[in-house]
Design a protein that fits this description.
Strand content of chain B: 15-25%
Structural class of chain B: alpha/beta
Number of strands of chain A: 6
Shape of chain A: globular
Distance between the termini of chain B: 35 Å
Helix content of chain A: 10-25%
CATH superfamily of the largest domain in chain B: FAD/NAD(P)-binding domain
CATH class of the largest domain in chain B: Alpha Beta
Helix content of chain B: 25-40%
Largest sheet of chain B: 8 strands, mixed
CATH architecture of chain A: 2-Layer Sandwich
Shape of chain B: globular
Number of strands of chain B: 18
Largest sheet of chain A: 4 strands, antiparallel
Number of domains of chain B: 2
Organism (chain A): Marinibacterium profundimaris
Radius of gyration of chain A: 15 Å
Number of domains of chain A: 1
Oligomer: heterodimer
Number of helices of chain B: 10
Structural class of chain A: mainly beta
Strand content of chain A: 25-35%
GO molecular function, one term (chain A): sarcosine oxidase activity
CATH class of chain A: Alpha Beta
InterPro entries (chain A): SoxD, SoxD_sf
Distance between the termini of chain A: 21 Å
CATH topology of the largest domain in chain B: FAD/NAD(P)-binding domain
CATH architecture of the largest domain in chain B: 3-Layer(bba) Sandwich
Protein name (chain A): Sarcosine oxidase subunit delta
Radius of gyration of chain B: 21 Å
Largest interface: A-B, 23 and 24 residues
Pfam family, one (chain A): SoxD
Bound molecules: flavin-adenine dinucleotide, zinc ion
Chain lengths: ~100, ~425
């Protein structure tokens, strides 16, 4: 079972309280009608599917109910950090420092 | 290689089974091949077999980072069925079931295909309506599937709890009698043996680290742990790792890789006559010929390459199984494991050419590609050999995610297994 830190509640809680909400920082175009089919394909369907550190969204569903972001290593399933929605994407190299 | 028959069995019995020869050699890579297939699962090995047996292309290598059949092929719950909603899927999966029926004879290898029937339980009104819609669509496509009432479900599968007070009441079910199971390892081994017999090299414990391209963009070969290997054509069939491999050729795929888990019980005498799927509660069950209950769960909620998955899901699955089959609530579970499945947005496979000349892909089978193994391998080999899709896989293109021509089994709610 994953233990996940909710940055709003500031508590580390079992996975069962949370729902996964896909890749983070996927931005919808400001002007949708300007987008061509390839850009829609990217926005709707293409995902990093990273093997290693992955920026992703979680929701503290059975707690505060809020969405937040996380960086998790998809090989070890270890969370490198979690941060509030709207915060800038944390720098990977500083997160990986001190990791084995 | 020895042909298996009653005579060779008898001969080897007399000599204490000490003189069986190996079924395929452990090949080392040559410097160049006509076709390199990345991934020695059922799909990759099958494609090599059909390339050799149907298209006369034998200068072929199948390369795997681990042991052959050690990926999802060797980890799945082996449910075979073809009652998918859309015409395209029905054709593809029914093509596979046609091949399953003759596969043991064709390969001279017992893949233990067992037509024991697959019963999909309806637990709520939505299930009833959606399964009946599937049944009608299937029958128009010539795919067998019929409705059973609650009592008929109980007759077909006596361990079922059909009490009206059950937590998951059984409101009926969809039965495909042609569906069943097969021995997963034997599928990989049978194809491996058949391919090797025709000259295909099977190279194990050799990860492909990158796909190389020529200056004109076409495929040049693959970088591996054992060095560069040149190839005219490269075909990727790497399940949960396909997007990682394809990225090295600059091809992005709409795939996400999730853990999918399964578990088996201690072996018991024959008690469970068929396959039962309960999509609403994500519980899938059959009994293996060894006597173990084979139980599959749904995917974990997060993407991962860890081949483990979390325990909460196993707890949920076992809870559902013991509700639907209270008779099993004191069975002991022996082992659980996970595989990494490659899921597409519409829950249909991507099988065909890619934007890179000479590069082909067969992926996106997600939680339900074992059943497709012979059919997918057969049309994949055709596509590689002729550089154009077989009519059956022609709709399963990568560019459908741009054109919008999805094959939306996800929306059809046929949870794939
Ligand atoms: C628990 C579980 C239950 C399932 N239940 C069912 C079911 O009941 N019915 C059903 O139809 N389907 C089921 N499936 C899905 C099914 O197992 C798969 O869709 C199918 O087996 C895929 O076959 P494959 O040959 O494409 O992949 P695999 O057998 O996974 O083969 C891919 C191979 O590629 C290799 N590979 C990966 N990366 C590299 C690399 N870089 N270099 C070299 N080799 C590489 C891997 O080692 C692996 O051997 C289940 C899956 C799981 C995990
Ligand atoms: Zn919270």
């Amino acid at each position: 079972m994953l233990l996940i830190h909710c940055p709003y509640c500031d508590e580390t809680l079992p996975e069962a309280e949370f729902t996964y909400a896909g890749q983070a920082h996927v931005v919808r175009a400001q002007d949708p009608s300007s987008q061509d089919d390839g850009q829609w394909e990217d926005f709707l369907f293409m995902r990093e599917n990273a093997r290693g550190p992955h920026y992703e969204r979680w929701r503290h569903f059975h707690g505060c109910g809020r969405f937040f972001n996380a960086v998790r290593d998809t090989v070890s399933d270890k969370f490198l950090t979690t941060y509030k929605a709207g915060d800038a994407r944390p720098d990977l190299s500083s997160l990986l420092e001190g990791q084995e | 290689m020895t042909r298996f028959n009653a005579f060779t069995l008898l001969k080897n019995a007399v000599t204490g089974h000490k003189n069986w020869t190996e079924q395929w050699p452990d090949s080392q890579p040559k410097s160049e091949y006509d076709v390199i297939i990345v991934g020695a699962g059922g799909h990759g090995l099958g494609a090599a077999y059909y390339l050799a047996s149907q298209h006369g292309i034998t200068n072929v290598a199948v390369i795997d980072k681990g042991w052959l059949g050690g990926g999802n092929t060797g980890r799945n719950t082996t449910i075979i069925r073809s009652n998918y909603l859309y015409d395209e899927s029905a054709r593809l999966f029914d093509h596979a079931v046609d091949l399953w029926e003759g596969l043991s004879q064709e390969l001279n290898y017992n893949v233990m295909y067992s037509r024991r029937g697959c019963l999909m339980l309806a637990h709520n009104v939505h299930d009833v309506q959606s399964f009946k819609r599937h049944i009608h669509a299937n029958r128009l496509n010539g795919v067998d599937n019929r409705w059973l009432t609650t009592e008929e479900c109980k007759d077909y599968c006596p361990p079922l709890n059909v009490s009206p007070n059950a937590r998951y009441p059984v409101m009926g079910g969809a039965l495909q009698e042609r569906a069943g199971t097969a021995r997963h390892d034997a599928v990989a081994w049978g194809y491996a043996r058949g391919a090797a017999m025709r000259g295909v090299d099977i190279i194990q414990n050799c990860a492909v680290t990158a796909i190389r391209r020529n200056p004109d963009g076409s495929v040049a070969g693959v970088e591996t742990e054992k060095g560069f290997i040149k190839a005219k054509k490269v075909a990727v069939s790497a399940a949960g790792h396909t997007s990682v491999v394809m990225q090295t050729a600059g091809v992005r795929l709409p795939l996400e890789s999730y853990p999918l888990q399964a578990l088996v019980s201690e072996p018991v005498k024959p008690i469970f006559p068929c396959v039962v799927m309960s999509n609403a509660v994500h519980a899938y069950i059959s009994q293996s010929d060894k006597g173990e209950l084979v139980i599959g769960s749904g995917t974990d909620q997060y993407t991962s390459y860890s081949q483990r998955g979390g325990l909460p899901l196993i707890e949920h699955t076992v809870a559902a199984i013991t509700e639907v089959f209270p008779i099993f609530n004191r069975m002991r579970m022996l082992r659980k494991w996970g595989g990494i499945v490659d899921v597409t947005p519409d829950r249909s496979a991507i099988l065909g050419k890619t934007p890179v000349e000479g590069l082909y892909v067969n992926c996106g089978w997600g939680t339900g590609g074992f059943k497709a193994t012979p059919g997918a391998a057969h049309v994949f080999a055709w596509t590689i050999a002729k550089n154009e899709p077989h009519p059956i896989n022609a709709p399963f293109t990568l560019d459908r995610f741009r054109t919008g021509r999805l094959i939306d089994e996800a929306a059809a709610a046929a949870v794939a297994h």
